[in-house]
Specification:
The complex is a heterodimer of chains A (114) and B (117). With 114 residues, chain A is mostly beta strands. Chain A has strands at residues 3-5, 10-14, 19-21, 24-26, 32-39, 46-52, 60-61, 64-69, 74-79, 88-96, 103-104, 108-113. Classes of the chains: A mainly beta (114), B mainly beta (117).
Chain lengths: 114, 117
């Protein structure tokens, strides 16, 4: 079984600043994928970034980057140059093998302020 | 990119009635779909895996007779909440797998918010 831990229930960040959202995971599988999703108040799940367990380089997607530390089982999301529209819930998730069945963390609510 | 659509987005029903939620893959064939449930301010919890042409696989603790899943075609899976009660009020969201190797992007529907009075 997999387990995802997000220790920050809520975070505040000023506009244009960078913010790091923490995520640690626990899995016994050698091959797995790590995901970050954004969920605005409307409810839809918006895919942000993916890191495969065998990828040696940290994933980046625009203003999003994933700080992958495999030995520590950590997959933190870094959002650079925060925007007001980044205010939302952020979920870290893991899957194993080729299945798309995800295990989600409890989420972090990010609030971007002026 | 691929699109997954859910319908209805919002539904309010009386206790004891059944409600059907549809999940459609609009531009790809989904051999597997997943149904999640999300209570307010909580995470998504997987309810079941829906496989086209076969019975759904339910997660531990999910009543299969309560939450009926049908995956009759490669583009449609339905979740029926039978004899709904107020405790079934929740946000239900589906995701779909295209059958390709894990490319990192999974496709979620917009979600369906169920309120049982």
């Amino acid at each position: 079984a997999q387990k995802i831990t997000q220790t920050q229930p809520g975070m505040f960040v000023q506009e244009k600043e960078a913010v790091t959202l923490d995520c640690t995971y626990d899995t016994s599988d050698q091959s797995y994928g790590l995901f970050w999703y954004k969920q605005p108040s409307s409810g839809e799940m918006i895919f942000l970034i993916y890191q495969g367990s065998y990828d040696e380089q940290n994933a980046t997607e625009g203003r999003y980057s994933l700080n992958f530390q495999k030995a520590r089982k950590s997959a933190n999301l870094v959002i650079s140059a925060s925007q007001l529209g980044d205010s939302a819930m952020y979920f870290c998730a893991v899957n194993t093998g080729t299945a798309s069945k995800l295990t989600f963390g409890t989420g972090t609510r990010l609030q971007v302020t002026l | 990119g691929a699109v997954v659509s859910q319908h209805p987005s919002w539904v309010i029903c009386k206790s004891g009635t059944s409600v059907k939620i549809e999940c459609r893959s609009l531009d790809f064939q989904a051999t597997t779909m997943f149904w999640y449930r999300q209570f307010p301010k909580q995470s998504l919890m997987l309810m079941a895996t829906s496989n086209e042409g076969s019975k759904a696989t339910y997660e531990q603790g999910v009543e299969k007779d309560k939450f009926l899943i049908n995956h009759a075609s490669l583009t449609l899976s339905t979740l029926t909440v039978t004899s709904a009660h107020p405790e079934d009020s929740s946000f239900y969201i589906c995701s779909a797998e295209s059958g390709q190797e894990n490319t990192g992007e999974l496709f979620f529907g917009e979600g369906s918010r169920l309120t049982v009075l």
